[in-house]
Specification:
The protein is mainly alpha-helical. The model has no long low-confidence stretch (mean pLDDT 90). 74% of the residues lie in helices and 0% in strands. It is rod-shaped.
Length: 42
């Protein structure tokens, strides 16, 4: 027997994590290109 409800929950949580990661990457890229984020040059 397989728990389909658990599989759906896992797929949804994985989808949310992937979407949040992509959004964060895009925000960092946009912030860097707009000059809001600058490297420290240590």
């Amino acid at each position: 027997m397989k728990d389909d409800d658990q599989s759906i929950k896992m797929a949804k949580s994985l989808t949310i994590r992937v979407v949040l990661s992509v959004v964060l990457f895009i925000l960092i890229f946009v912030g860097y290109s707009m000059g809001w984020i600058t490297p420290n040059h240590i």
